[in-house]
Design goal:
Blueprint (H helix, E strand, L loop, with lengths): L1 E8 L8 E8 L4 E5 L6 H8 L7 E6 L2 E2 L8 H5 L2 E4 L11 H11 L4 H14 L15 H13 L5 E5 L7 H16 L3 E5 L3 H6 L4 E5 L2 E5 L2 H19 L2
Parallel strand pairs: 3-8, 3-9, 6-7, 7-8
Antiparallel strand pairs: 1-2, 1-4, 4-5, 9-10
């Protein structure tokens, strides 16, 4: 699905913001992306979304070497990715429902299905009474939920979200994580950048942790516990050999 090999990223002549990044994300996996502010989380997500090209190293997405992908190929690849960045990128002249509907209409989905699906997902994120509201009338947290609904409406192969619970209360934040969890169970690869340790503990998934531009993969607590039990079992077996 996603493979980074010795990837570095710099902006202009500045020092690298990402250094020697190597990891592989299997299809249908769920990872939290963590690290202090300025650690490079947004930059890493933008590399995954193909908004930036690496300064060095290899990025492979959906089995394709991104160095070989032309500008003409980018729209097709990006249509397979759901993204939620902190600027939300909503179109001000469209209603909440019409913003969410964009990916489905671009894919040629019948209009009756578009309206039904978009209404359902907006109700799920707590915006059932704001289907026809323009972004200028919505709060920051409401805009964020519209952006999240748009990112998941077409069941993307890959979902990338940058602090998706940053502007909502704990109850809505938990509801959004359950939505991402359902997509993960349906086979979507999910990467969520967050500072919310309570959510990370509640949803026990491995994390990609960035520290000063370098990345470490931290297994989930469950996998560490299972590995510990496996080591104990191997030790017990060894005693009987």
């Amino acid at each position: 699905m996603i493979r980074f090999e010795n990837v570095g990223l710099r902006y202009g002549t500045e020092a690298e913001v990402l250094r020697d990044i190597s990891f592989t994300l299997q299809p249908g996996s769920f990872h939290f992306l963590t690290g202090a502010s300025g650690a490079g989380k947004s930059s890493l997500l933008k590399l995954m979304y193909l908004a930036h090209r690496p300064s060095r190293g290899l990025v492979t997405l959906f089995g394709r070497d991104m160095a070989m992908v032309t500008r003409r190929d980018l729209p097709e690849l990006r249509r397979q990715i759901g993204v939620v960045f902190q600027d939300f990128a909503l179109l001000d002249h469209l209603s909440a429902l019409d913003n969410v509907a964009l990916p489905l209409r671009m894919a040629g989905t019948p209009e009756a299905d578009v309206v039904a699906h978009c209404s359902e997902i907006l109700r799920w994120v707590g915006l059932g009474n704001h289907l026809h509201a323009k972004p200028s009338t919505l709060s920051g947290g409401q805009k964020q939920r519209v952006a999240i609904a748009r990112s998941v409406i077409n069941r993307p192969r890959l979902l990338l979200a940058d602090e998706p619970t940053g502007n909502v209360d704990d109850g809505i934040g938990m509801r959004l994580l359950y939505l991402f969890e359902e997509l993960y169970k349906l086979g979507t690869t999910v990467v969520i950048a967050t500072h919310n340790e309570a959510l990370i503990r509640r949803f026990d998934h491995p994390r990609l942790h960035l520290d000063n531009g370098r990345l470490m993969v931290v297994p989930s607590r469950g996998s560490r516990a299972n590995e510990g039990r496996a080591q104990d079992a191997r030790a017990n077996d060894a005693r009987w050999e």
